[in-house]
Amino acid sequence: xxxxxxxxxxxxxxxxxxxxxxxxxxxxxxxxxxxxxxxxxxxxxxxxxxxxxxxxxxxxxxxxxxxxxxxxxxxxxxxxxxxxxxxxxxxxxxxxxxxxxxxxxxxxxxxxxxxxxxxxxxxxxxxxxxxxxxxxxxxxxxxxxxxxxxxxxxxxxxxxxxxxxxxxxxxxxxxxxxxxxxxxxxxxxxxxxxxxxxxxxxxx
Length: 204
Prior knowledge:
51% helix, single chain, alpha/beta, Histidine-containing Protein, Chain: A
C-alpha cells in the first residue's frame, strides 16, 4: 500500500490523492476509494496518467477561480479532457468570462481552452433545475447505450443546450452519442467538442 501512495505523489498524482481522500478518512477507506478510482481511470481512453493530469488541472483552475472570485467559481462550468478545457455557464459580465478564460490557461498541461460562457441570460431556478435533470438523463442514457463507451464523455447543460467534451472511438460512436443526446427530452441543442480517437489534435 505504501508504494501505491508513493506512486501517486506527483503533480497529477497529488490531485488524484486529494480526490481519493473523499473515499474515507482511514487508510482502508482511501485504499478502497483508490482502487475504484484507478480502475475507472484505467478503463478510459486517456488512461490513468491522463485522468490524473486532468484532475490536477481541474483542481488548479478551481482554486484559481475561487481565489479570484467566488461568484466565478460558482457560475462557470468546467470540463477537462486530455488538457482540453471547456468552459460553460452564464455570468453577469463579459469581464468575468474573460477572467475565467485567462485563469483557465494558467495550469501546466492546458493546450486548448474553449469558451462557451454566456453573459447574463436571465436564467432562473427553474432553468437550473431543468438543466440538472437533462444532465442526469443524458448521462444515464449514454451509460446504458450499448454502442457507446460513456466513460469517455462529459456533458454539461446550460439552458437546455448540452455541451459535450471527450473522446469517441470512431465516427459511428460519435454519431450515436449525438442521436442519444438529441432525443433526450427538453434538449434544445447539442454543442460538441468531442474528438475521435485518431484525431491528430490529441497530441496537443
